[in-house]
Amino acid sequence: MVPAFNEEGNIAPLHARLDSVLRACADDHEIIFVDDGSTDGTLDAIRALARRDPRVKFLAFSRNFGHEMASTAGLDRAEGDAVVLIDADLQDPPEVIRRLVDAWRDGADVAYAQRRRRPGEPVLKRLTAWLFYRLLARLTEVPIPRDTGDFRLMDRRVVLALRRCRENPRFVRGLVAWVGFKQQAVLYDRDERHAGETKYGFRKLLKLSLEALSAFSLAPLRLTVWLGGAAVALSVLITLAVVFERVFLGPAQRGYALLACGIFFMGGVQLVILGIIAHYLGQVFTHGQARPLYLVAEQSGWSETHGREPLPGDGRAREPLLVVRRQEADPPHAHSTLS
């Protein structure tokens, strides 16, 4: 599956490389694009591919719902025995799919591509990504692989398990780690972006980081207890200092600087605690609205009944991504069909 948002210049070269790789991996294949409300010529480029190549299918959202929802839309309809998820910017080389398929045929339920190098990316982005993955690994109860994006292959039973997870907001790579099964890393070097600009600026990365952390960790809530305890301890120490001074040193004329600092300190602690709680309550509120995760405005390759959106948790809606079929009658190393 290929989620795409304003990737007009990458669609054609990505399709050519994917088609070549998938032909080498199996007897047949299909490539599925999910257009996430693009405002450039991305959807037109996908439509043109679908007219020329019967293996190309696509969905087009009614608006921009975000990368996580575009990935979810593909997972909801994947029909094959294995599903490959890859971005449209060509930073993840499609040729790595062969190694992912090999790992799957050797018994892995999830073969995730783990980055060794990230050339062409700004130093600040690489630093923040490095910190994000390590902070996430430190604070979450679920072991989420470091330096790993959404580029991965998933067995069908993993996809079926993911369909049961209808939470909103979503963090797909965290959900893949949460469902478990046998997971294996495949190391690779990331390429520079082929065309266009990154859609993940600092604000989007920060938003994704907060959603990921709150979705898979209670550490921020536990932090509020420590902040409150630290504030109480500091207040007790200041009180003891004042009592000691009055008893042993006698009264002294003082200004209000210390009092003002204490008030502002306590106010700051309270606002931080309220902010953390408000973030978690916001997550609950968003999920409680029970709105559809995404809306499809156009599709090609499926009937209308096949293309419906799922009810939360029913797991019935389907949509292919890049799907690898393993033939039941053949051993794991035999030829497969990719769709």
Give the gist of this structure.
With 339 residues, the protein is of the alpha/beta class. The protein has two domains: 2-216 and 291-338, Alpha-Beta Complex (Spore Coat Polysaccharide Biosynthesis Protein SpsA, Chain A); 219-288. Helix content is 47%, strand content 16%.
Structure overview:
By secondary structure, the chain is of the alpha/beta class. It folds into two domains: 2-216 and 291-338, Spore Coat Polysaccharide Biosynthesis Protein SpsA, Chain A (Alpha-Beta Complex), CATH 3.90.550.10; 219-288. Helices cover 47% and strands 16% of the residues. It contains ten helices and ten strands. It has helices at residues 8-25, 42-52, 67-75, 97-105, 123-139, 156-163, 172-179, 202-216, 219-249, 257-288, and strands at 2-4, 31-35, 56-61, 82-85, 110-117, 148-155, 183-189, 296-300, 322-326, 336-338. A six-stranded mixed beta sheet has the order 7-5-6-4-9-10, with helices on both faces. Helix 1 links the parallel strand 1 and strand 2. Helix 1 (8-25) packs parallel to helix 2 (42-52), helix 5 (123-139) runs parallel beside helix 8 (202-216) and helix 9 (219-249) packs antiparallel against helix 10 (257-288). The relative contact order is 0.19. Mean pLDDT is 76; it is low at 307-321 and 327-335.
Give descriptors for this structure:
alpha/beta; single chain; 10 helices; six-stranded mixed beta sheet; Spore Coat Polysaccharide Biosynthesis Protein SpsA, Chain A; elongated
